[in-house]
């Protein structure tokens, strides 16, 4: 039987169209596998498990940024699937012209061409975690931190915390990469690991409970309260109180205020004293805006806060109701609660919205990204222009 080895495996991760639509607004600006959950993005997880670099198959306007490489022998993987060791081993040994299925859903297949039908189907030999809905990102985050922690740390030795004023519980579950610093903080890793990425910083008086991931170049500000199952993506700053939330990267929630059971995209800024409700007053099930159905759907969850697309911002003291979805490039401010679905490129708040013009939004994006020494490329501009046009239908005030 012809088996795959790491020496000639060509790894390609594809977007399942139905899942991709359900994960909007996050997938307006990234493929499904570009979503961070745990410590790593889904793409990075597969690359680590299979010891291979992956390319991406996604919509044409995104493929300008996330390119595709098809070779004679390829493993194609559904970008919504979070790998585990058993599934990764099954993928490594997948015969040519064979697919892996789980409950009728395609997880992976090996073939010479993405559009070529496979002939044999195998059932997944372990229970694969699929991220098919927005709320699963924060709901599965704690377990994914644990899984990624084992994958990343493996047999490596952590950099030590060289600060006598820091208190650590469960020190064996804390890992610091090179350049990570901690000062006068309290870290409790007894119930889950705490990962501090390269050149990250935990400042004085911060309280952290694992599972928690602070990715490369990110900061936990003075006096912050970071509760379990939370991830702060690379080059982000956080403060105030956070629980069970995922910040994708390059975003700030640097000030006081509460963020719970939420997912924040890249290049976002949450203004000082902004707060998110993650539990309804009557403790009932939360509904969340669903793009493919164009209506609010039941989540089955009692706790659900804010989902925010890339490049969105809030003014100070902004309040979000339970189960709010904010699109890409929105600017929200003012008193009162804005509606539970804020379309992309909205400007305003509870008193109403106008349009955040794409030209102005791109000016701000260029300035914000330059502060992180990242260039807003022409490809980035094309993607955001495409999203602007694609989302006109939701900005009802323009009609």
Note the main attributes of this structure.
globular, Spore Coat Polysaccharide Biosynthesis Protein SpsA, Chain A, 8 helices, UDP N-Acetylglucosamine Acyltransferase, domain 1, alpha/beta, disordered N terminus, 9-stranded parallel beta sheet, 399 residues
> Strand percentage, roughly?
25-35%
Strand order of the largest sheet: 10-13-16-19-22-25-29-32-34
CATH class of the largest domain equals Mainly Beta
How helix-rich are the residues, as a percent range?
10-25%
Which overall shape is indicated by the principal axes computed on the Cα atoms? globular
The overall average pLDDT, rounded, is 96
How many domains is the backbone divided into?
A: 2
**Span between N and C termini?**
60 Å
Stretches with pLDDT under 50, minimum 5 residues: 1-7
CATH topology of the largest domain: UDP N-Acetylglucosamine Acyltransferase, domain 1
Structural class by SSE content: alpha/beta
CA radius of gyration is: 21 Å
- The CATH superfamily of the largest domain is identified as Hexapeptide repeat proteins
Number-wise, the strands total: 36
Quaternary status: single chain
